[in-house]
Amino acid sequence: MRTVAEQAVGSHYKRMPTSRTRPRDSVAIDEALDWRNSNLGRLAFAVAQVYERALLEWIRAAGHTDIRISHLTLFRSLDLAGTRLTALAERAGVTLPTMQQIVDSAVVLNLVSRIADPMDGRAKLVQFTERGHLILRILEEGVAQLEVEVEQVIGSAARTRLARDLLNLLHAKGVSLPIRAGELQRED
Fold it and tell me: What CATH number does residue 164 fall under?
């Protein structure tokens, strides 16, 4: 039986060009530039893509086939009490018009709604609907399954150490995430 991650990735990463499909010079250039594919940033990005695809498949397997990968940005960035559009765009690293399109699409799918900001009646907050909260619970189950799969590959201690080390790297770069207190302890 294939894991959730294997199902999500499918054969996407397996279709690597061979020397039969590319000129020999191209292969030599790629090998000389291998650092582009083996650095930590690229590896972390690839793992994040695998996670996103797996989570999207998890959501779709639960019957929510209208969800797109772009909607996952909201589930990562939106506070449970609601978040302003500008903050969502900043957290997701996208432009305001791009986030507006994602939110508009999510409103149509009844994932989120817009309400008046109680702190500033002129501003709007984006918040999860009942369906959005349901998808959050489905995502929580999917992440738990992916974490089990990671532990099966690298072990529980290594998974905990990896998470802590990634958090330390982010902290060293001045990035903080909304991680629950005590979930990961930073090593000084």
Answer: 1.10.10.10
